Amino acid sequence: MLRGGSYxxxxxxxxxxxxxxxxxxxxxxxxxxxxxxxLDITGHxxxxxxxxxxLQLRFxxxxxxxxxxxxxxxxxxxxxGDHGMVDxxxxxxxxxxxxxxxxxxxxxxxxxxxxxxxxxxxGADRDVLEVWQALAGDRMWVASREQxxxxxxxxxxxxxxxxxxxxxxxxxxxxxxxxxxxxxDPGQTTMVGHHGSMTDAEQLVPLLLKQI
Length: 212
Description:
The protein has helices spanning 13-25, 38-46, 51-67, 100-103, 125-136, 145-150, 160-163, 187-190, 200-203; strands at residues 76-80, 86-87, 93-95, 106-112, 115-120, 140-144, 169-173, 178-180, 193-194, 207-211. With 212 residues, the protein is an alpha+beta fold.
């Protein structure tokens, strides 16, 4: 979505605001997109219920407040986020390699802990679907690729090149659970905050508009 734009790096939160303000005055009409990653990182590392995350959010609130007087007149300031998060405790994580029934027939696990694409060995897709529905269906929506596509999980239209990347079975968490593989991707097991599924907590984000 940023095709054709020019990129400016920022070395700090204040610099991000300064570069955004300068970019807006560099042309008569401009669309400036400024992204601050530290809130997301803090949520993953400490959780969205943590004091650390709330303090980081206050820094962003403060930047927005201080940035407003420096914006050109007639500007529209939009403040939003790209996703929400759910905190998971260590006991909420299910290691696939420690659950033989879940792992049976699974060739590859992709996606994130709360949004898993299960790629099966040839001919095992139906069996894997039934087992995952039986064992994980109390905390996850579990569907075949065809069911997920037909259900609009990936939008109203799915291109062929996208369809082939979707798992034979797709599992999206609605309860407090995450499917991990500690031996293959240990990073997922160290996170407190997770996202990727279709719950309101993960999909709904604030949208604040201020006309300058």
